Amino acid sequence: MTRITLDRPDGRVVVALSGGAWREEAPMGDAASSGACEGLARAIAAIEIVDPDTIAVPVDIRAARRLRLEIATGDKDPAMVAFVAAAGINGKRLGWRAGAARAGLIDESALGEFMRPPESFRDPRIASFSSPNVRRLTIERSGTSLRIERAGEASPWSGSAGAVTFAVDGHRVEELLDRLRGLTSSGFAPDPPKSQASGTLVIEGEAGVLARVTWGPLDRPKETTGGELWLTTPTRPGVVFRMDAANFGPIPAQAADWAHPSIPGAKAQGGS
What we know:
This protein is mostly beta strands and 272 residues long. It has helices at residues 34-46, 170-180, 245-248, and strands at residues 3-8, 11-18, 21-26, 30-31, 50-56, 66-72, 80-85, 92-97, 102-107, 136-141, 144-149, 158-161, 164-166, 187-188, 199-205, 208-217, 228-232, 241-244. The chain has a nine-stranded antiparallel sheet, covered by helices on one side.
């Protein structure tokens, strides 16, 4: 399957496979979760009709009362189109192929992947890199820029802020990289952020930038507790990720945050 189109009562969902990667084309153009898309493809392939060809296909069934499924395989064969009733009886739903005169029954338990929220098909990953490949981190916030770097994978880390150098505890760098290398969001914000950015984090390897993330505070309803952040990355233009601040930070804010705790003047890392 190279393209799956679901026309549901709540709108259209389209995912397509190109160059080995899935992409959500509707309701929003964005990178898609390979796990979610492959799960949908497996669910489609596993559908079985119970008592096929025993019921007449409904005539002029309204879009609000059915799910339309269109599958393209990338071959010369035309796309396959099928329909499933939006509601059923006793755990069964009516299902039929386009152009058929008779329909059969489908277990509702087989349709869970068809009705998942459109947002769940989007890729929640914000940054993905291998820690051994990292050679440089740059953190820009509040008008300052901290630069942490090393010459090679086994080399020690050093830090600088402009012309000033400072000691760096390698364990603190590795802890930060471990937290960021598989960074995933808890969801997506529907609109561009209204607040100003708190900072930008750039992670580089020998061949160039591995990840670049800008973050800032996200307004939350008054009745909720805890902080939440918005995050953006140039690799996903127009996408605004959401994440609890505790899952992203703390991000070091000053030179002392990188030092070993036993060094005089060193203190705990600053918040995000």
